[in-house]
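User: Hi! I have a protein structure encoded as tokens and I'd like to know what sequence might fold into it. I'm fairly new to this, so please keep things simple.
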């Protein structure tokens, strides 16, 4: 086996081990030492393939995003009305994230970094992979928004920007669903917490994305 093939195979093994640990323990509890142990290598070898933890996380997120894009595509019916399509992929996104909490953690961990900082820590190739994977997911929403704009159903100035807003809002909603607590003021000066019914949250999110697409508030 050529050196390049062995290197590609080792990188694939590291990514698979990272993903397995993320799904099993969550992002916060997955350590480089655990990943190396799962592959059966020294942690130093991981840094031969990835510049650091951020790059490893970014490349792992690429895998999640590819799966998300396939999920969104499977739940979108191009023959349906734009509003129905937008609602369908919104539900698909939320269900995907609810089923893979590590995806939420991984995505939000990278979103917390400023763009210039991330670009200093992640190689150009991985940033390219991440950008392509992200745009592939967003394209499902962009296509639906543009279809609605053509029919006059949606009023959107920048479909790409709005799709990015949908993505970040969706992650926030999933974070709330994972927390499973909402806060309210029961009496003056006294807060109270309630459980979060996921089906109700999904309904709110659908209503919100449709309202934004329609240009209403």
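Assistant: Happy to help. Inverse folding works backwards from shape to sequence: for each of the 217 positions I chose a residue that suits the local structure. Here it is:
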């Amino acid at each position: 086996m050529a050196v390049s093939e062995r290197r590609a195979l080792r990188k694939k093994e590291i990514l698979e081990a990272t993903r397995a640990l993320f799904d099993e323990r969550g992002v916060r509890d997955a350590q480089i030492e655990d990943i190396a142990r799962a592959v059966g290598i020294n942690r130093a070898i991981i840094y031969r393939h990835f510049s650091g933890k951020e790059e490893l996380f970014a490349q792992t997120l690429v895998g999640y995003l590819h799966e998300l894009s396939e999920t969104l595509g499977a739940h979108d019916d191009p023959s349906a009305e734009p509003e129905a399509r937008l609602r369908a992929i919104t539900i698909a996104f939320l269900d995907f994230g609810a089923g893979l909490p590590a995806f939420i953690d991984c995505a939000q961990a990278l979103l917390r970094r400023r763009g210039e900082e991330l670009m200093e820590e992640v190689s150009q190739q991985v940033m390219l992979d991440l950008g392509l994977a992200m745009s592939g997911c967003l394209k499902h929403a962009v296509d639906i928004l543009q279809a609605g704009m053509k029919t006059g159903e949606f009023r959107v100035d920048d479909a790409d920007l709005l799709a990015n807003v949908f993505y970040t809002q969706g992650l926030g909603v999933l974070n709330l669903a994972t927390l499973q607590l909402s806060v309210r003021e029961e009496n003056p000066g006294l807060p109270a917490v309630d459980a979060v019914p996921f089906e109700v949250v999904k309904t709110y999110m659908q209503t919100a994305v449709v309202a934004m697409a329609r240009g209403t508030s």
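A useful reference point when you look it over: The chain has two domains: 1-49, 53-214. Feel free to ask if any position seems puzzling.
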